[in-house]
Amino acid sequence: MNQSVCRVLLVGLFGLLCACSLFESSAEKVSQQQLLERMAAHEDMLILDVRTRGEYSEGYIGNAINIDHREVEERLAEIEAFKDKPVIVYCYSGMRAGMVEAKLVGHGFSKVQHLEGDWSAWQAAGLAVAKPE
After folding, report:
1. Is 73 among the domain residues?
2. Among 44, 57, 79, 115, whose CB has the most other CB atoms within 10 angstroms?
3. Quick check: is 9 in a domain?
């Protein structure tokens, strides 16, 4: 490869890495085990699945409500009661959840948290999955 092609590839790779870091969550992390314990203790919290309706319909973490990441801002009224309570956000791999977490914090949600590993890790661990009726 010539130098100009390498430069273009390096600049593109750098741009991609920067874009991904913009959506990396700064929210406190919650492990799968911690979430399971909190669910078992019936903690007053919101588990927010920000995947698409289609993804959610294939299975979700019990008690999670689904608001597509693209609809969060127009549906804030639905979750307003959790503004000062824990809101644990997940998507498939973390990018969409990170975007939503930033929006929630920007709208005054004070206890936004992120499920480590998101849905993909939950499934890989073989943990309980709920399905819509």
Report:
1. yes
2. 115
3. no
In a domain, 55, yes or no: yes
Q: State how many domains the chain has.
A: 1
Q: Domain containing 101 — which CATH number? A: 3.40.250.10
- Tell me the C-alpha distance between 71 and 52, whole Å: 10
- Average of pLDDT values for 61-69? 97
CA nearest to 35, candidates 48, 21, 20, 18:
48
Rounded percentage of the chain residues whose pLDDT exceeds 90 = 78
**pLDDT greater than 50 at residue 14:** no
* C-alpha dihedral, 21 to 75 to 67 to 100, nearest 10°: 10
